[in-house]
Amino acid sequence: METKTAADLKLANWIGGRLVPTTGSSPVRCFNPANGELLNEYSDATESDVAAAVANAENAYKSTWNEWTPGQRSDALFTLAALVDGCKQELAAIETLSTGKPLASEVLAAEMPLIVDQLRFFASSARDNQGLRSGEYTTGKTSIYRREPLGVVALITPWNYPLMMAAWKIGAALAAGCSAVIKPAPTTPFTTLRLAQLCVDAGIPPGVVNVVIGTGGPGRLLVKDERIRGGSFTGSTRTGAEIMRNAADRICRVHLELGGKAAAIVMPSADLEKAASSLAFGAVVNSGQDCVALTRLYVHRDVFDQFAELLTQKTAEFVVGDPMDSTSALGPLVSDEHRHQVQQALEGAVRRGARIHYQQRIDRTNAAGYYFPPTIVTGLQNTDELARREVFGPVLMLADFADESEALTLANGTEYGLAASVWTRDVGQAMRITRRLEAGTVWVNDYLTFVAEYPHGGVKQSGFGSDLSRDALREFTVAKHVVIAHD
Ligand code: NAD
């Protein structure tokens, strides 16, 4: 199937390997964040749509996917990775239209190579997931340890990385031997639907991957469906808590990748130039709409002024503009409503005494788009709402500290625990701080590096469980102990 733009792609559920119009009547609209134009609209999926998707997933699991050998599943996933690679221009263009991410610098240069690599990683791990071991732990009996797929799983994703989140979850679930129903975010279903089509093109049996489109309603129905044996969710902490409550009612396993409020600590011995450059980008990546985007930057008093100046210079260099323009480093925020929320969060902090240390001027020719300028804020207490709440825009809080202990107290002073970073040339100090930072990922003299082989996950209210790595496959499998008596 040739698909060129989001507007060309029909929005419907993807069930049993074909597009099936939703039976709902509540409209959902998708806009281009770069200019506010309507891209497409559809009706929210209903209970019968969700039920049909789950039935197809269950049937495909039992009749094909669970019967295939790990090698067969691996081959199909390698083919999928190759197809995604071959369609990367098309997929990237669709992603940019619906999310506003810069096409060249972000989606094509940064995201697509990672997505293809991650799918290849899952393809290879599909052959080595059983963890089979056996032995005689009781005289006259052999014990066998098997890891088996959960069965049909629900995958629920957010709008900030629609294709990447779909690839992480579909890749791991299928490698583990599960079939899936995925529910993308309401305004960004396009690339997820295209990925599901590519799954069938790759030889993955129809019904192994199904998509229901819509708001939280179909997501809620999926979590409550008795046939769903596990759920993997990426999104806000508030929604994650509701999913956990609904899953608890029927003792269904969930994996939750939730919000973040990442902190960085800069020590006097750090390479300040390198730190400013890396952290300035960390704060504005995907216009700050990234769960690991840098939101709180703590700098040692001795180098604060020097560092603040470097950071401001680096931040001023980012071009905010049309995501289709190859010079743009930042595109718009995802929606007008979200832009309004970011603006309100900033104004609230200013009313409570924060100072705007730096804010870029935005080119007014883009007035119809949902653009927001990179902003650095000082004069905030760690207890202020802006320091505690996820803002999800390019707004960075900058503050100083006196010593290592205070830096750690400030960095850990949040309900979240997704990512953190420390900058120092003192190896001992780096290890001391790394050990004490409460976060699922800690970068030392670095920011934003992800590898497919290592897990991504959080602690505290950032959730639990892992995306990426072999750990991600464990989210979709369960242990079985088989005992064989010798006579
Ligand atoms: P969200 O929680 O509003 O929605 C996420 C998904 O859940 C959407 O598909 C939504 O329709 C669905 N949903 C809503 N209510 C539901 C319910 N009751 N039951 C089931 N599904 C429901 O999040 P968002 O605004 O789309 O995404 C931004 C959030 O995602 C931020 O908080 C960000 O930090 C987080 N995020 C986390 C990670 C991570 O790896 N930890 C990665 C990306 C984004």
Considering the chains and any ligands shown, give keywords for the structure.
single chain; 487 residues; alpha/beta; Aldehyde Dehydrogenase, Chain A, domain 1; Aldehyde Dehydrogenase, Chain A, domain 2; 2 domains; seven-stranded mixed β-sheet; six-stranded mixed β-sheet; 15 helices; 20 strands; globular; binds nicotinamide-adenine-dinucleotide
Short structural summary:
This protein is an alpha/beta fold and 487 residues long. It has 15 helices and 20 strands. Nicotinamide-adenine-dinucleotide binds at residues 156-161, 183-186, 215-216, 219-220, 223, 234-236, 239, 242-243, 257-260, 291, 390, 418, 456, 458, 462.
If you consult CATH, what is the topology of the largest domain? Aldehyde Dehydrogenase, Chain A, domain 1
User: Largest sheet, if any?
Assistant: 7 strands, mixed
CATH architectural arrangement of the largest domain: 3-Layer(aba) Sandwich
Number of helical stretches of at least 4 residues: 15
Question: In terms of per-residue confidence, which ranges show pLDDT below 50 for 5 or more consecutive residues?
Answer: none
Bound molecules: nicotinamide-adenine-dinucleotide
User: CATH superfamily of the largest domain, called what?
Assistant: Aldehyde Dehydrogenase, Chain A, domain 1
Number of domains: 2
Kindly report the average pLDDT value.
96
Multimerization state: single chain
Strand content: 15-25%
CATH class of the largest domain: Alpha Beta
Distance between the termini: 58 Å
- Number of DSSP strand runs: 20
Q: In one word, what is the shape?
A: globular
**Structural class by helix and strand composition:** alpha/beta
